[in-house]
Structures are given as C-alpha cells and as structure tokens.
Amino acid sequence: MRASDTAYAALRDDILQWRFPPGTAFAEVEQANRLSISRTPIREAFARLTAEGLLVALPGRGLVVSELSRSTIVELFELRIVIESEAARLVALRRDRDVFEQLRAEFADAAALLDNGDDLGEYYALVARLDAAMDEATNSRFLLGAIRQLRPHLVRARRLARDNHARLVAAAGEHLTIVEAIVDGDDQLAADATAVHLRKSLKNILDSVDGATTTTAMNNS
Amino acid sequence: MRASDTAYAALRDDILQWRFPPGTAFAEVEQANRLSISRTPIREAFARLTAEGLLVALPGRGLVVSELSRSTIVELFELRIVIESEAARLVALRRDRDVFEQLRAEFADAAALLDNGDDLGEYYALVARLDAAMDEATNSRFLLGAIRQLRPHLVRARRLARDNHARLVAAAGEHLTIVEAIVDGDDQLAADATAVHLRKSLKNILDSVDGATTTTAMNNS
DNA sequence: GACCGCAATTCTGTATACAGAATGAGGGGA
DNA sequence: TCCCCTCATTCTGTATACAGAATTGCGGTC
Fold this sequence. Notes:
Pfam family, one (chains A, B): GntR
Keywords (chains A, B): DNA-binding, Transcription, Transcription regulation
Strand content of chain A: under 5%
Number of strands of chain A: 3
CATH topology of the largest domain in chain A: Four Helix Bundle (Hemerythrin (Met), subunit A)
Protein name (chains A, B): GntR family transcriptional regulator
Largest interface: A-B, 26 and 26 residues
InterPro entries (chains A, B): GntR_C (IPR011711), TF_FadR/GntR_C (IPR008920), Tscrpt_reg_HTH_GntR (IPR000524), WH-like_DNA-bd_sf (IPR036388), WH_DNA-bd_sf (IPR036390)
Number of domains of chain A: 2
GO molecular function (chains A, B): DNA binding; DNA-binding transcription factor activity
Distance between the termini of chain A: 39 Å
Oligomer: homodimer
Largest sheet of chain A: 3 strands, antiparallel
C-alpha cells in the first residue's frame, strides 16, 4: 500500500473516531513525524481530507478538523434525505429481487440480534450489507458519489447520538419497511419510507445533541 | 497565485473546453513540461481533478479524461434534478425577496436579450446571476457542495447540446416560472418548476446527442 | 510465424532541500 | 502601560533527486 493511502486512512480514522476533535490544527511536519513518512504523502492525504470536508483551511491558520455543529448536522440531513430517498426509489425499480428478498428475511429477524446482549456487531453488519446492496443496485454514479461524500460526516454525527434499545428496534422496523418496498418494486413507498427513517434518525441525533448540556465536541455556531 | 492553482485551472479549462477529449491520457512529466512547472503542483492539480471526477485513474494506465457517455449524462441529471429541486424549495423559503424580485424583472425581459443577434452573453450572464443568488440563498453547505460537484460535468455536457432559439426562449420562460415561485415563497412550485426545467434541458441534450450520428466526443458505453 | 521472456525506458511514489511568506514573541518607544 | 516595529522561527509551496514498479518493444526460441 502507498504511504499516502496509509496516511489518509490513519488521519481519517483519527478524525472519525474523535481522537482529533473539531478545531484540532494539522501541520504537515508534525504529522509526517508522527506517521514516520515524508511530507509529500502527507500533503496528498491532507488534500483528500480537505476535499471530503473533514479538514478545512483556515486562512493563515493552516488546516483544522471541521466543526460538526447542530446546524451542520441539519444541513447534512437536508441533502441526505433527498438523495437517499431518490436512491431508494431507483433501487426499487432496478434491484435484483433475490438479493433484497434475502435481506428482507434477515431484517424480519433483526429483533433477535438487538436482544443479543451488548453485542450489536451483527446488527450493524446487517445494516452495512443493506447499504452495500443499495449502493450496488442504485447504478447511478453521481448519486452514489454524493452519498459517499456524506458518509464520513455521518460517521462522526452518529457518535454524537445516544442509540437506546427502543430507537434501534424502531430503526430496524423502518429498515424492514424500506426493504419490503424494494422487494415489491414499490418505488414511491421505498422513497417515502427512507425519508421517514432518516427524519427519525435526525430527530434522534438532535435530541441527543440538545440533551447534552455541554460537550467539548459541540459547537452551536 | 500558487503554481498548483494555475495548473489546476489550466488543466480544468482544457478539459471543460474539450481541448482534451475524453480518453486523453495525462502524464505528470508531460504536463509539468507543458506548463513549465515541476511535478509537485501538477500532482496536486491531478488529485483535485480526479476528486472532481474529470480525471479517472485507469489501473496501470495512468490518468485519463473521464468519459461523458449518454448514460453518464442521464445519471448526472438523476442527481441534479433531485438536489436542485430541493435547493429551489429551500430558496423559496429562505430567500431575500428583494434580490429575487429584481431577477424576476430581468427574466421577464429576457426575450429581448435572446433576440440580441448572436450575442447571448448577456443572457448567459443573467442565468449565472440567478445561479449565484440561489447558491447564496440555499444556505445549506452540503446541498451546495453537491451542486458544485456537478457543475464541471454539466459544463462539458452543455457543449454537446445544440441550443436553438426556440429552446432558449422556452428555457427563459421556465426560469421565469422558477423565479416567480421563489418570489412568492411557493416552495412546492419552485421545486416542481425546477424539475420541469431540468427534465426539458436533459431531453434537449439527449436529443442532440442522439441526433449526432457520430462524433469523436461521444462514447455510448 | 507466433509466443514467451528479458531488458530498457518511462512513469509514479517518496524523500528532501530550499525559498518565500506569515506568525508570534520580544524589545523599545510613546 | 500599551502599542508598534522588528527579528526569528516555523510553515507552506515548489523543485528535484532517487528508487521501485510497470509497460513496451525487441529478440530468441519453439
């Protein structure tokens, strides 16, 4: 693997896992020393992270980890809701029925995974498989590209949410509705059910954010 | 200005103006010599163009200018229609009324600009001002980012379209409907009128593409 | 005549040196 | 005591050298 890929992956993970909270300043030499590579691949990694919006260039102040304020999260979902709803609509029209039939069966049993003690790994893996199947079936490069662009920010946002058991059960039900609509080829239902799911997810995140009296992570600018 | 910015702007313009048609291979040394700078800023420019999707990395074959096939144009509009409709909806709710009142008056007189001989510069400038005002009023960073991501590809696609006078007059009317809806704060009309306008624009481009028996530019993969 | 292998050329990826710009601290003057 | 100017430090931007990988072309062999 190239050194620039390694640096990109390491820095990206550091940001997504909140090891570098918003506002952290990045300097080339510092990170080059830390990762034991030269400045050249670091520069490339910085460029990719800046293009993704995880880093922002403060004029005269270098690169800092971007903020993730309440309003940013709202704007994130303003875009996410419209494009993922449209993606779901297209998937309902274009999907391989067998693939989603299988996923439907798995989501029908998802409640068991959620009662599986504290190990939600299997459930999250199932959601990831659904996402991957939808990416595959969307078959629209720009739509997919826009979704991919949002994902790193969503990963950060999700860490602000408190997922309680009730919310997870509800979310699993929402997913099941979406998958059923896709299996049935009901594109309008797939789109609307996706919008419902995402609006509820947003509400859950915002409730967590607003409930938090003070965290270093939040910056309600 | 930085050398990497110069290189990026030059290469981007070369691609958008079809001086480098799809499939053209890019090598670092070659472009560094052509633009009389070293490979370092060229690498940064390549990275930005690749992130935008104007260049694609063919494994083992270097970077080439991305294709713009019929299906790519369709996929481009699949995304464009949903996000620009949503943007128009938000603008109708968030706009500064005076700004769009002014634009409404200008679009009401747009027919005169279109009869202004072959100089359509003023009309295109008016459309550009509308785009800028909408970008400003959208006030949603991710939505705006997604639109910006599409623009370079739209510039390329537009060069494939044959804009006849009738189409331009119709488009001006569609724009007027959109601006009126925004002035009135009618978000649903603004969204639907935008979708209508973009679907007609797509149809116009596809008619031009399909009408072209053979051009070196097209690659119907 | 065709296919396989080797060698040379070329390209990318990385490291590093150097120059110019900007920032921050420290000292001097008002 | 506060403000401004200057100098030093540090950072980014660029050039370039070097190494490893890959491709292409040529030659030999089957």
